């Protein structure tokens, strides 16, 4: 890193951080909350399930944001956050998911969160469903494999828009909606493991979520045309491992698996290449005329995305697969990796932003990006514990420089919320030791710890980045 970056970020750029209810709130059985799929998955997205919540599930307490939200939001304000992305736990509002009336105690909790954000002038960005399907819907209906979930989700979305619509301008429908084929239980509440789920059931569940997303967009705009509703895509560019045209085609096909979700959200219809995929797998989706109309007439206002890594694709069989990469792929020999095997590729973020902008022409919002790492708490200059996380600063700086380049390319980027702005329970592994935050939370993988909060070195770094609207970044 050398020179300071010329000011590339637009005025009003939304700087902030991102979290998910199941990874920060805790209080899994407080305030009338029902169980979610997260409460029976103590080892992360691909881990085994339990019949009931077990003591080894760190998410049951998480970092106790439910009771400490005021303290945490004050720290976000100290960093200068313009926006805070959080999710609402569906089972806190509708404990089973299929009730007719919402749980007032759950609604009141998020009123209190919004009160704190308003006190500091922090814009809320709310995700309706962030891997938090009510467990009852998973067990009774097989999750999103059932069309009935569309109606339950519509009722939930309407309750939120009516309650918070005058306080929340920006909404996301489903977190990383394209993850459903890979993690059907966490992403869709579907009981069958991914390797046992039929193509028919996988794509039908995907269709149900897409229709529900479009329907939620319709409801939001009916309640207030000024509300902005976005989709959320797990973004990971695929590169051909070699110049072999077959590798180039393999990479294109792999990327299309992700593009399909955004194509439907942004264009209101299934693309031809995806329809071919369905035909070749013998899938006949149950699509009603009403489905087609709601998809066509209710495209999203913006596209949000998570970005952590890029992937390679090849037709060659005897190559090493990428450890930790959630969407598969093979190792890129030109890249380094994190401690969890996620390959680090800042330029890939610029590539994704340009590709998405060129493809859909919708404003883009980076709502997840960050480095999971083992942090060591050490005494700071004044004796207060801190973390000397220069590795995190370097990672975030390099990615934000590429965001600036994309803005200079002409891409409309609304904002950036760093993932896990405060340490939280990892989604992929359900560990505390895989830390992302600017704020250290004293909790360990064995559940011990005081839950005290400490500012890391990156805390002050990010505060400076926000204060200067990116001018302090080093290219």
UniProtKB/TrEMBL annotation:
It comes from the Bacteria. GO terms for cellular component: cytosol. The active site is at 368 (nucleophile). Pfam families: Glyco_hydro_1 (PF00232). One of its GO terms (biological process) is carbohydrate catabolic process. Signal peptide: none annotated. Its EC number is 3.2.1.-, 3.2.1.86. SUPFAM superfamilies: (Trans)glycosidases (SSF51445). Keywords: Glycosidase, Hydrolase. GO terms for molecular function: 6-phospho-beta-glucosidase activity. It is an enzyme of class 3 (hydrolase). Belongs to the glycosyl hydrolase 1 family. PANTHER family: 6-PHOSPHO-BETA-GLUCOSIDASE ASCB-RELATED (PTHR10353:SF122), GLYCOSYL HYDROLASE (PTHR10353). This is 6-phospho-beta-glucosidase. It comes from Propionibacterium ruminifibrarum.
């Amino acid at each position: 890193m050398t020179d300071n970056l010329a000011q590339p970020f637009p005025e009003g750029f939304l700087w902030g951080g991102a979290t998910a209810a199941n990874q920060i709130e805790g209080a899994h059985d407080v305030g009338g909350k029902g169980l979610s799929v997260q409460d029976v998955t103590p080892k992360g997205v691909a881990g085994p399930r339990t019949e009931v919540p077990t003591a080894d599930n760190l998410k049951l307490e998480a970092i106790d944001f439910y009771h400490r939200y005021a303290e945490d939001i004050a720290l976000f304000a100290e960093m200068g956050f313009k926006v805070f992305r959080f999710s609402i736990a569906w089972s806190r509002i509708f404990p089973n998911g299929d009730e007719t009336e919402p749980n007032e105690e759950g609604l009141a909790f998020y009123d209190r969160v919004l009160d704190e954000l308003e006190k500091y002038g922090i814009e809320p960005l709310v995700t309706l469903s962030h891997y938090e399907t009510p467990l009852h819907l998973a067990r009774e209906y097989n999750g999103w494999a059932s069309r009935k979930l569309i109606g339950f989700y519509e009722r939930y979305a309407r309750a939120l828009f009516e309650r918070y619509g005058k306080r929340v301008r920006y909404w996301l429908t489903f977190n990383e909606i394209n993850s459903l084929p890979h993690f059907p239980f966490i992403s869709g509440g579907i009981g069958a493991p991914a390797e046992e789920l039929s193509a028919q059931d996988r794509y039908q569940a995907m269709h149900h979520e897409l229709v529900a997303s479009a329907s939620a967009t319709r409801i939001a705009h009916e309640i207030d045309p000024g509300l902005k509703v976005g989709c959320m895509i797990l973004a990971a560019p695929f590169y051909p491992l070699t110049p072999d045209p077959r590798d180039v085609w393999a990479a294109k096909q792999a990327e299309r698996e992700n593009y399909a979700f955004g194509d439907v959200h942004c264009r209101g219809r299934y693309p031809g290449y995806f329809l071919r995929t369905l035909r070749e797998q013998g899938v006949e989706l149950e699509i009603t005329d009403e489905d087609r109309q709601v998809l066509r007439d209710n495209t999203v206002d913006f596209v949000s995305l998570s970005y952590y890594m890029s992937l390679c694709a090849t037709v060659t069989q005897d190559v090493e697969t990428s450890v930790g990469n959630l969407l598969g792929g093979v190792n890129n020999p030109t890249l380094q990796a994190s401690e969890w095997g996620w390959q680090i590729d800042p330029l890939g973020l610029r590539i994704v932003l340009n590709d998405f902008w060129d493809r859909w022409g919708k404003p883009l919002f980076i709502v997840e990006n960050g480095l999971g790492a083992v942090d060591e708490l050490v005494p700071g200059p004044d004796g207060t514990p801190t973390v000397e996380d220069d590795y995190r600063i370097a990672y975030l700086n390099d990615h934000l420089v590429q965001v600036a380049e994309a803005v200079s390319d002409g891409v409309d980027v609304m904002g950036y919320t760093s993932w896990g702005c405060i340490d939280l329970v990892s989604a992929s592994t359900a560990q505390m030791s895989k830390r992302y935050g600017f704020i250290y939370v004293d909790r360990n993988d064995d559940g011990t710890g005081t839950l005290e909060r400490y500012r890391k070195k990156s805390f002050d770094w990010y505060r400076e980045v926000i204060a200067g609207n990116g001018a302090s970044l080093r290219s």
